[in-house]
Amino acid sequence: MPDYTASIDDGVAGLRIGLDPVWALDRIDAGITAAVEAAADVMRDRGAEIVPLTLPDMATAVEGWPVLCGVEAAAAHAETYPSRAGEYGPYFGYFLRMGAEASGVDYARANQRRLELVEQMRQATDGVDVLISPAMATPPFPVTREFFMTPPRDFPQWRMRFTVPFDFNGWPTITLPAGRNAEGVPLAVQFAGKPLSEPTLFRIGRAYERATGYRPGRPPVD
Question: Most exposed: 96, 99, 105, 171, by fewest CB within 10 Å?
Answer without folding.
Answer: 105
